[in-house]
């Protein structure tokens, strides 16, 4: 998105004769403005209106056209310092006008330096979210409408190639961190060496762990000699953060530091103790009671936002619903923010992507369904209401395990909050309705499972364990409140327990287990003392579900004495089978059957079979003996054969045969052999080509002869189709020069009937009657051949009549 801030300048407009005078006047204004700024003392300024500041005429006109007249506290303190070129850290309450506090110095500094499009990029403004960047860009367009600077918006979700083409002509850029770093790495024409100012809005969010590596990479590209401005509702003052940005003696401006509260005085803040499984019931009841309100509901994750939005759309609480989260496409996010801003009554479910900097007009309620991660996040969330000295209300729903910790954090930030109770008469339960919807709609059930897992993960990753403790949360009841039939499995929690069990010391089996093992005849446990270490084989032997397995498997585990007699044959197995259980022979169905009938199953004697392949096969069991009967299984023992070709004399040769080096040298040098081979191949190709051409000629000749024969047959058939009736064989039909020719009705040619084409003037009525028509050349067509004299007379009368 690119905008030309000067609406009056038009490229290609003819030069005005007074252009040099205007430039001279602008230069004089700039000199006078610089003198006023130099004489400005920021600590003694007590200005309340923008007109009291030394601002340029384009900026003053833009503020007046945008209806900005009186300055807020943060603007009155920051703008004079920024006009002097100092690095500033501004902290003020939400909705106190921080955007204008850095946009006005941006425009003024570029104007005093007489910045043009040839100078390149002068100011870089970084925002943590796309919605906030769009909002800053809109304010910049309004205030800077009379300036001649080119401003651009660089955020994710737009065409990268289109941004690359226009990026080199921009003077002011409003961007998000990730997209800006992408352009710095991939856009060759993007130059930031002449940058004058760097502005970070919501700096505490940009400089936290989520954006730390990205911001560090961006700062490495920027020049060291620049002015830096940082703004946020909760500002950081850590030396490490300031050193990363190369600030030079920054001025810290805090408007609410001496105030009694970190939030606006017009904001009413309350919290409700609501168990986790009852939060959705409380939210639905609240929406039903406040239909004619503008409500913003915050949740922890995007999957929760989607589930609550989809389920409440089915429940229809009576208020228009919207949802906003980071996984949506950029166009959808812009559409949602525009709809919520323009709506009079609406409810928006959102994640913390809407918690910072966004100016939604006339928001009545801010509901925090999930506990914020810290006090700063709480301040930013409730800052979406009670903006610019308007009234607003905020409600925080807390689980009993979260109450003590979060209230302590809010008290440290000077946030006044009171506890209220919900009227039980207005409380409605939607648990059964959600269960019915999840049962009927598998997709909604799947979204609910994902919402449950995402909420548990959001609690699990929080650093402040005094507030967020998974062990104290009723997760099973919470899953049921979402309409789920059972609690979904959570891999990262199961992984911790499995890892803990794996790393724990291996305990000894209990005494009851030892006694049970003695009764079963376990030789490892019978008569032995407790060992210090249990192996995996011990645990395998002590499994309690052995009864469901086959009888021969039980006997193998228990070590039956009778099995030793059947398994040992002709000294092929060790006499002592207790030493290694892996050598126990597998018992089959034939063994069990033999035991039932009282006899032993016949075991084949081991022998070697040498006639099958190159290597002998050792046959020592029935399974190996069956192998001899399968030709397919014996193929792997026979080895791979060799393919042979036969010459003209009938001698067999391998497909590829290599000559000895001596034989090769006897035939002559390599170049001579090569040229000889090429000549032979040319001759062979020439002969083959001549043969191919002869074949083509013969085929053409055959096709030509077939065509002539077909044409001759067609002519012969045409001659047979007509019969001359005026021949000497006819009786008394010679009527003069003219002769009458009658065509037969139908002639069969090679089994196919030849149908006469019907004329457009013929009549299909009166089937079987004779039809006689006059034609040119005295040729008459009849449906039947005349046989008697009466027929000929009728035909003649037809000709005459």
What does this structure look like?
The protein has about 800 residues and is of the alpha/beta class. The chain has four domains: about 1-10 and about 20-255, Rossmann fold (3-Layer(aba) Sandwich), CATH 3.40.50; about 265-480, Rossmann fold (3-Layer(aba) Sandwich), CATH 3.40.50.300; about 605-660, no CATH class; about 715-755 and about 770-800, no CATH class. About 40% of the residues lie in helices and about 10% in strands. The chain contains 29 helices and 23 strands. It has an eight-stranded mixed β-sheet with strand order 1-4-5-3-6-7-2-8, sandwiched between helices. A seven-stranded parallel β-sheet has the order 11-12-10-13-14-9-15, with helices on both faces. A two-stranded antiparallel ribbon has the order 16-17. Helix 3 packs parallel to helix 4 and helix 7 (about 175-185) crosses helix 9. The protein is extended and about 120 Å long. The two termini are about 95 Å apart. Mean pLDDT is about 80; it is low at about 5-10, about 505-530, about 545-590, about 590-600, about 725-750 and about 760-780. It is found in: Nucleus, Nucleolus. It comes from Trichoglossum hirsutum. Its main location: nucleus.
